[in-house]
Amino acid sequence: NNKGNALRILGEIYMRKGDIDNAISNLENAIQSYDKAIQLNPNYANAFNNKGAALWNLGKLYMRKGDIDKAKETFSLAYENELMLIGIYQSNKQYNELPSRYIILLYYLKKSGQFEKGRFVKHAGEFLDSFAVFETLSDELKDQIYSKIASLLASENIFDELTTKWVMEAVKDHPVLKNRFSKLIEKIKALGDESKKDV
Fold first, then answer.
1. What is the C-alpha to C-alpha distance for residues 62 and 68, in angstroms, rounded to an integer?
2. Which of 2, 26, 53, 125 has the largest count of CB atoms under 10 Å?
């Protein structure tokens, strides 16, 4: 995992510098390193987490290159990786990790071209079922979690205007989902309004 992390970080440095080919090469090597770690320990959450980060950036790089098919393939791999990580967190009862993981999962569904209504509602429902403990938390902690997820969504521009409209249409017959995503979208809009003030 340490070797993978070093390669991933190097890839991210090349990515920031705009050296796409070297960034891709290092991220691909990092993913291979994480796969070896996962073979040795199939429940190694950190390796899955770091592999997901590498796949995330790799998918973005393929999009920059205009290789949409390769990008979708990479995001599909990220989606499968995320499912495995969620399974580990559920088994370990690390419920605090699940909200942001499910949001990332929905992001991969969108980016890989698999973001259709049935699958979205299914996974959004799993998000709520797995995080039933959410309702037992204090209002202050709930708000912190909402803010964390909203920041992630806003930073990656996951909920653009069209996606927001589509999501609300998808969950209109699911009151709890509708309420949960309405709160997230309100926070995302607030973050956007704040960023405009700073410009």
1. 7
2. 26
> 58-62, 154-158, 195-199: which has the highest mean pLDDT?
58-62
pTM of the shown model:
0.67
Which range has highest mean pLDDT (39-43, 73-77, 156-160, 192-196)? 39-43
pLDDT digits (tens, 9 = 90+) for 8-62: 999 999 999 999 999 999 999 999 999 999 999 999 999 999 999 899 899 989 9
Contacts 24+ apart (CB under 8 A), 97-101: 98/127, 98/130, 98/131, 99/127, 99/131, 99/134, 99/145, 99/148, 99/149, 100/148, 100/149, 100/152
Residue 153: CA count within 13 A, CB half-sphere: 30
CB burial string 91-122: b at 16+ within 10 A, e below = eeeeeebbbebbbbbbbbbbbbeebeeeebbe
For residue 58, give both structure tokens. 């790799």
Nearest by Cα to 56 from 94, 96, 15, 115: 15
Rounded Cα distance between 140 and 180, Å, is 16
Q: Helix (H, G, I), strand (E, B), or coil: what is residue 42? A: coil
